């Protein structure tokens, strides 16, 4: 039962982190005026890191995709450590993007 309890706690925290990452990705795309593709994030990595207080915790990396004009596709990435955003790479305001053809 202890193992099942630990597995359930891990799953709940992973799901909460994914929901937080979805909200952050969606908000970033909205703020940049780009289209958030697939309406979801994908787990891309998991590692053990020390938090700011020195305790061990999980650092989860997620990726998401977005489009400036509907015909292109770009990958964004965000990293959460204990539910807190520590790294982000993704869309910028569409007006600042230079299209080279």
UniProtKB/TrEMBL annotation:
This is Membrane protein. It comes from Lysobacter helvus. InterPro entries: DUF3301 (IPR021732). The lineage of its organism: Bacteria, Pseudomonadati, Pseudomonadota, Gammaproteobacteria, Lysobacterales.
């Amino acid at each position: 039962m202890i193992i099942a309890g630990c597995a359930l706690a891990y799953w709940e925290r992973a799901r909460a982190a994914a929901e937080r990452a979805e909200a952050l990705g969606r908000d970033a795309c909205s703020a940049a005026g780009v289209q958030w593709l697939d309406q979801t994030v994908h787990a891309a990595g998991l590692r053990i890191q020390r938090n700011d207080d020195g305790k061990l915790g999980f650092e989860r990396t997620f990726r998401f995709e977005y489009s400036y004009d509907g015909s292109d596709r770009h990958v964004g990435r965000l990293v959460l450590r204990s539910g807190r955003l520590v790294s982000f790479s993704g869309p910028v305001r569409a007006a600042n993007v230079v299209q080279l053809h």
